[in-house]
Design goal:
The complex is a heterotrimer of chains A (534), B (764) and C (107). Chain A is mainly alpha-helical and 534 residues long. In chain A, 71% of the residues lie in helices and 6% in strands. Chain A has one domain. In chain A, strands 1-2 form a two-stranded antiparallel sheet. A two-stranded antiparallel sheet of chain A has the order 3-4. In chain A, a hairpin with a 2-residue loop joins strand 1 and strand 2. The two termini of chain A are 41 Å apart. By secondary structure, chain B is mainly α. The longest helix of chain B has 47 residues. Chain B starts with a helix and ends with a helix. Chain B contains 32 helices and 2 strands. The radius of gyration of chain C is 18 Å and the shape is elongated. A two-stranded antiparallel sheet of chain C has the order 1-2. Helices cover 73% and strands 4% of the residues of chain C. In chain C, a hairpin with a 2-residue loop joins strand 1 and strand 2. Classes of the chains: A mainly alpha (534), B mainly alpha (764), C mainly alpha (107). Chains in contact: A-B, B-C. At the B-C interface, helix 32 of B face helix 1 of C.
């Protein structure tokens, strides 16, 4: 047992305790040091296996960073085991990281670090703010590396509390409404998710005689048979999929469960919006890929067509709503809805019909996974940009600005960069994901792809229109005194920009990182789909 | 194999290097840090976005009279309203909806923001005067310019070397793939970033690098005169424009060509919006640069959408992006599907090459600095569409004949359509813009009817030279008359700026199809091709367009350079109608014009096999059908030449000699009505505006403000308040009276007992 | 005449009802307390009756019910003292021992 994952998960908690006892003056530095160290450590997740394989090891082959069955990193110990009659409850402390987890963990560590840097200006109870950010990081870290379903659910709920407080205390005008909406939506979903977890655990236990919630076990055994619901028999896997998916769909968020997102984004402080868009939405997407379609592949397959339609609707609906927003943050929030639709679409194609399309399916799933990463980085940039502007102007309405380029050239260019990345400009990471998804999903769901692709026009429209209204034209004299982004404010933007650029120009390394994990999922899906049609 | 081919990556690497050195090293660490930091206003605008904002008092008064918004006087910032009014006028002009309610609230908030903006504004107003930009670029900015020119020069030399190498070695002309790297490889699907070199590539490389080089050289003077603070940035954007176009031209597959395609869109967005501070000029029908840039990008995206779907059809059917691999892997693909795919690919070309119905962005793109217009119109952006069709021509051949028919007819219609709009415009650059659209139409006709890419690409080449010359020349005119684009305030400039006028005249003759000039060979070749392939409708269209082209180009010439009282019957010089003094341009302006004049005149001979060589044979390996190998053996030439001479004569008569009354066409109501329609560009902008405003935005508003806010949030909030209301009712039972609780306990016990008894008793 | 078990149960039930009635209908807190005491004693009678009726074995009588009764008496005494103390505290504060006046714990 290596302790790396445990350290990564709980180092921020230690940091939170340290923040609570640190002298007032160094609170932010303590938080920055702890998140920074976590960030640096998280790189070892990626570099460690590379060193182990001799750096130029056979990454392209099945080894690499492992799969959910045999991840590259594993911390496990028995935790709660008890038996009452025939009822066995076995919950293990099991943390693991394969390619899919590793890159989400690194993204989380990076964005948490940047969030601390980007919150330097917070002067309302900074101690509690930083402590909550650190606890949030623990929760999210746990979600991305929990390899036991109950532990996953535990971390999933842990993350809610700091997020609720961060929005409700440090948020904008309607912060309490937004915070409650966020929490109630999520808890509504997680109630169903817990139902799904019980269902898969006990059905699988009953059918195999082994009661285990470990991911490796769940991925290698599948629930069979039907469930009687109100007299009608439905596939047990479909029921499990739908119950679990409801929890994830709210987090992604999928239309029509998305209305918490614009409110939460708009009201949350900048850094929290960044984390919300960059990380929390990814938890839903990660759960969809890691849990839903891997553990209930046949159920996912049965739901593939509605999923594809919902994905396309998400993309177009989110884009349309973005077009008419007045508030920059709301606009970006809706653009998140739109962009996360690509994840849904990619996953739908991955579990879609057609046995001969295995290559396209894997490409679609890869695209969905990369979209998670790139959306996190790009939307993080966009929110930081709005945050910089809001810090100086105390207003975010697009129409009140105008001609800011004359006063804020640095912000203008980095904002334009982020907008271009978001609308899928080649050479930046947004394009990688979108292009992979388009080119592969079209083989399986052409009509949905066309609908989704039509959003690229609207996306360009709303983002560049926003830029135009705020930054182009004659300078609105009311903003004559506004200062440009400072070096401190530019730092997170530039870091994210570099990541976006690297992924955009050479996405191959990311694909290699993901390949074994996703290949296993696709094989699982194909195997069970073949069983379904036999 | 020649190292010119194997190391072809050098060509795009050079502008990339120039860009990186510029933006990462020279600009931030030398240019910006060495700028004059005399006063706060400049320091705040350190990135050089200062230019000539229309913030003077005079400008305000004018604008106020036209479009002032009474609502804003309440706020007590009268000097703010004209700017806002300008922006709003522009917004209503180019298709965006504004929200009056948002402004006052914002302004109130703005008053609370820290900083003495009022003082800064005063300083700035005193400094800024339209078209009298202060300051000059630092030496480091100039070094950036020299570096860009040097690197582009090297790229040009490399391209020239490549062209020579290919000419000497016919084996190389048929194409060579140069692998660079694999972008992504998933489950056997390969997304390659590879280059492909054949004679088409070589020709395009030479055109792109040559025009870029000359435009960069020219830009030194132009940007110094128009926006000196953005000097470095302008050269950075030029480099990235060249890079994108070179990637596009060099690509061996649909992935890289799409990337270059989008990057060209990015570069044009940045460059068209370069003069970001300018406001719209509704009285001249001109949008702001920002609006024009936005429009260019979004309209192009419409085309890209079709292009992307076309790529998707081909890729999912064959599993490869590579042009040369697709035909072999097509297998039993449905012919109709391939036809649809190719028409969709052509959609992309329609967008980039500004063909009807996606031509609307190009005239607005004139808001960019004139060298940018020259680049966009001659070698880069618009040529990309033609190049795309040429590059994928084998696939068009495999597809059903409908695909190429669509190409030809879209081209033919656009040619005559745009030419007719150009007849009545009064803005120099807009006339040239419509002429570009029209000439691109010719190229598509050439590609569509000729069974070979030769004529289309030939016209692309000659057009690149003379159109670049025309634009750079018009830029020279604008510099001379202080950026006034209205031809009504010009006239007789030939004697005042002869070094600009002379090459401009040559280019005008060339585009009009005057015999032995480059445009004559390439255009008449296309016109003859339509006849030879028996497409008489297209023949009539292209012939009529030739007449219109000659007419409006010479109308432009006479209104700008000639006029009453000039030599040779008004051809050279004459009365000057403007008020500002004419400034003589320096050598950085006229030298590129002189250089461009050479190919504008002589490039055509490459297509005349008995004199200069056979262009088509070089490009495709097969000489063109013999009927047009020599233009003088074809009787059709007479009609083509006749049409253009007629157009020149009519323009001369109306505007030079002034023997034909100017209102000869608009004196009757029908002609006047038609002219109004033309003046308003067939109202296409208005139709699109209405569509976007009422359909797209309307649906979006329904989605956002009705479905989201009312229905979904209604359910959510309703569920919340339902639970709350339930709890509110339930808590009435908590009376706080001991006896009530006691009674409830006893009653509850009784109920339990009764149930238990019933179960025990009836259970048996 | 030997009294049957039923007689004791009826007595217990009657006493319980009287106590219940007192506890629910009286407004004076002391009267309520007295009602509760009566109910407790009714339960005691029932317990002792059941015990003496059924808990006869070969080894003699077992006294489970009686012991319960003793416990209840003890607890009732403690409870009465606490309750009376509470009532006195309330009286000092409110100058009333009417339970309808003591309704702070309502919505």
């Amino acid at each position: 047992m290596s302790w790396l994952l445990t350290i990564l998960v709980f180092l921020p908690t230690v940091g939170a305790l340290a923040v609570m006892v640190a002298p007032q003056g160094v609170v932010k530095w303590v938080a920055a040091v702890f998140t920074g160290v976590t960030f640096l450590l998280s790189f070892w997740l990626y570099i460690g296996p590379l060193v182990h394989m001799g750096f130029l090891g056979p990454l392209n082959n099945t080894g690499g960073f492992g799969t959910v069955m045999s991840p590259a990193w594993m911390d496990a110990s028995p935790w709660i085991h008890f038996t009452v009659g025939s009822l066995q409850l076995n919950i293990d402390y099991r943390l693991g990281a394969d390619g899919l987890s590793i890159f989400m963990l690194i993204l989380n560590a990076m964005l948490s670090f940047l969030a601390v840097i980007g919150s330097w200006h917070i002067d309302k109870r900074p101690r509690e703010y930083m402590a909550l950010l650190l606890i949030l990081e623990t929760g999210v870290m746990g979600v991305f590396c929990a390899f036991d379903l109950y532990l996953f659910w535990l971390f999933w709920e842990v993350e809610l509390i700091p997020m609720f407080l961060l929005i409700a205390i440090w948020g904008g005008r309607r912060r309490e409404y937004a915070a409650w909406k966020f929490v109630l939506y999520t808890i509504f979903g997680s109630a169903f998710m817990l139902g799904g977890i019980f269902l898969i655990y006990f059905m699988l236990g009953g059918q195999t005689g082994i009661y285990s919630a470990s991911f490796a076990f769940l991925a290698s055994h599948q629930v069979a048979g039907n469930l009687l619901v109100g007299g009608a028999a439905i596939s047990a896997q479909l029921a499990i999929f739908l119950l679990l998916y409801l929890g994830f769909a709210i987090k992604i968020p999928m239309v029509p469960f998305h209305t918490w997102l614009p409110d939460a984004h708009t009201e949350a402080p900048t850094a929290v919006s960044v984390l919300l868009a960059g990380i929390l939405l990814k938890m839903g997407a990660y759960g969809l890929i890691r849990i839903c379609i891997d553990f209930a592949p046949a159920g996912a397959h049965l739901f593939a067509l509605p999923l594809a339609i919902l994905g396309a609707v998400n993309i177009l609906y989110g884009a349309g709503c973005s077009l008419v927003q007045q508030d920059m943050k709301r606009l970006i929030a809706y653009s998140s809805v739109s962009h996360m639709g690509f994840v849904i679409l990619g996953v739908a194609a991955a579990v879609g019909p057609g046995a001969t399309n295995a290559a396209f399916k894997e490409a679609a799933l890869t695209g969905a996974a990369i979209q998670m990463f790139s959306h996190g980085a790009i939307t993080g940039m966009l929110f930081f940009c709005v945050g910089v502007l809001y810090e100086k102007a105390h207003i975010r309405d697009i129409d009140v600005f105008g001609g800011l380029q004359a006063r804020m050239p640095r912000l203008t260019w980095i904002y334009t960069f982020a907008a271009m990345a978001s609308l899928g400009l080649p050479g930046l990471s947004g394009f990688v994901a979108e292009y992979l998804i388009y080119t592969s999903v079209y083989a399986i769901y052409p009509a949905q792809t066309i609908v989704a692709a039509s959003a690229m026009i609207i996306t360009a429209g709303y983002l560049l229109w926003m830029i135009k209204r705020s930054f182009y034209g004659p300078l609105n004299p009311h903003w004559s005194g506004i200062a440009d982004a400072s070096i401190l404010e530019m730092a997170p933007l530039v870091m994210l920009g570099v990541v976006v650029l690297i992924v955009g120009i050479y996405p191959g390394w990311l694909v290699d990182l993901l390949r074994p994990s996703l290949h296993q999922i696709i094989q699982n899906v194909n195997g069970s789909v073949a069983g379904l049609h036999r | 194999m020649s190292f010119f081919v194997t190391d072809i990556w050098v060509i795009p690497a050079l502008p990339l290097l120039a860009f990186l050195l510029n933006i990462l090293v020279l600009r931030p660490f030398f240019d910006l840090s060495n700028r004059d930091k005399g006063h706060a206003a400049e320091a705040a605008a350190a990135h050089g976005a200062q230019g000539h904002g229309a913030n003077t008092a005079a400008g305000h008064d004018e604008a106020h009279g036209n479009v002032g918004d009474p609502e804003q006087h309440d706020i007590g910032h009268a000097e703010a309203s004209p700017d806002d009014a300008y922006v709003r006028a522009l917004d209503t002009l180019d298709g965006h909806i504004d929200t009056p309610a948002a402004i006052p609230r914002a302004l109130r908030t703005a008053e609370k923001t820290p900083g003495g903006y009022a003082l800064v504004q005063l300083v700035e107003d005193a400094e800024q005067h339209p078209h009298h930009p202060h300051g000059s670029p630092t030496i480091w900015a100039r070094i950036n310019g020299y570096m860009g020119i040097l690197f582009m020069g090297l790229a040009f030399l490399w391209s020239l070397g490549l062209l020579v190498a290919l000419m000497q070695n016919p084996a190389l002309q048929r194409g060579e793939t140069v692998p660079i790297y694999t972008w992504i490889s998933v489950a056997g699907l390969r997304y390659p970033i590879d280059f492909y070199v054949d004679s088409l590539t070589a020709i395009m490389l030479v055109i792109v690098t040559a025009i870029s080089l000359l435009v960069q050289f020219y830009s030194q003077a132009y940007i110094e005169g128009e926006e000196p603070r953005g000097y470095s940035r302008f050269f950075a954007w030029l480099s990235i424009f060249s890079l994108s176009m070179l990637l596009l031209v060099l690509s061996s597959n649909f992935l890289l060509i799409y990337m270059g395609w989008e990057l060209v869109g990015l570069s044009s967005y940045l460059l068209i919006g370069f003069l970001a501070k300018d406001a719209a000029k509704p009285e001249a029908g001109r949008p702001s640069p920002g609006a024009a840039a936005l429009k260019a990008f979004v309209v192009n995206r419409v085309g890209d959408f079709g292009f992307l779907i076309g790529i998707l059809i081909l890729f999912t059917a064959t599993g490869t992006f590579v042009f040369t691999d697709i035909p072999a892997r097509l297998g039993p693909i449905n012919l109709a599907l391939l036809t649809v795919a190719m028409i969709l690919v052509f959609c992309g070309a329609v967008g980039k090459s500004a063909q009807f119905p996606l031509h609307v962005w190009l005239p607005d793109a004139m808001e960019g600095p004139t060298p940018v217009s020259a680049l966009i119109h001659a070698a880069k952006m618009v040529a990309a569409g033609v190049y795309l069709v040429a590059r994928t021509f084998p696939l068009f051949h495999l597809a059903g004949p409908q695909a190429l028919t669509v190409v030809a007819y879209i081209g033919g219609f656009t040619a005559i359509f745009a030419a007719s709009i150009a007849l009545v415009q009064i803005d120099v650059k807009r006339i040239l813009a419509y002429s570009t659209i029209s000439q691109l139409g010719y190229m598509f006709v050439g590609l569509g009817v000729a069974d070979t890419i030769g004529p289309g690409i030939f016209h692309l080449m000659t057009h690149a030279f003379f159109k670049a010359l025309l634009f750079l020349g018009s830029g020279g005119v604008l510099l001379a008359v202080s950026m006034n684009q209205d031809m009504r305030k010009m006239g007789g400039l030939a004697t005042r700026i002869p070094l600009v006028a002379f090459p401009f005249l040559l280019a005008t003759l060339s585009i009009s199809g005057f015999p032995f000039f480059a445009g004559f060979f390439s255009k008449d070749e296309i016109i003859a091709q339509t006849w030879e392939h028996g497409d008489y409708i297209l023949y009539a269209m292209t012939l009529a367009t030739a007449f219109l082209t000659a007419f409006y180009m010479f109308r432009l010439w006479f209104l700008t350079f000639g006029g009453k009282g000039g030599k040779f019957g008004g051809l050279w010089g004459g009365e000057y109608r403007g008020t500002v003094a004419v400034k003589k341009p320096d050598f950085r302006v006229w030298l590129p014009l002189m250089i461009l004049a050479v190919p504008s005149v002589f490039a055509g001979f490459w297509g005349w096999s008995s004199v200069g060589g056979n262009f088509n044979a070089f490009i495709t390996g097969h000489p063109l059908t013999p009927a047009f190998a020599n233009p003088f053996t074809s009787p059709l030439t007479i009609f083509g030449v006749g049409a253009s001479l007629l157009g020149i004569a009519l323009a001369w008569g109306m505007y030079g000699l002034q023997v034909v009354p100017r209102n000869v066409f608009v004196s009757n109501p029908l002609g006047r009505g038609f002219a109004t329609v033309l003046w308003n560009k067939y109202y296409i902008d208005e139709i699109y505006l209405a569509f976007v405003r009422y359909v797209v935005m309307g649906l979006s508003k329904v989605a956002s403000f009705f479905i989201d806010r009312r229905i979904i949030d209604g359910i959510i909030n309703g569920a919340g308040s339902g639970v709350v209301a339930f709890g509110r009712g339930l808590r009435r039972s908590e009376s706080g009276r001991l006896q009530n609780y006691g009674a409830a306990i006893f009653g509850g016990t009784l109920v339990i007992a009764a149930v238990f008894f019933a179960v025990v008793y009836f259970g048996k | 005449m030997l009294l049957s078990l039923n007689s004791f149960l009826v007595l217990g039930a009657l006493l319980f009802c009287i106590g219940l009635f007192g506890a629910l209908s009286k407004r004076n807190a002391v009267s309520v307390l007295m009602g509760i005491e009566i109910m407790l004693n009714a339960v005691n009678i029932t317990l002792v009756a059941f015990s003496s009726a059924f808990q006869k074995s070969a080894h003699g009588a077992r006294l489970t019910g009686q012991i319960f009764a003793v416990f209840i008496i003890t607890v009732a005494a403690a409870e009465a003292s606490v309750a009376l103390a509470t009532i006195i505290a309330v009286y000092r504060r409110r100058n009333s021992v009417d339970v309808t006046d003591i309704n702070l714990m309502k919505w």
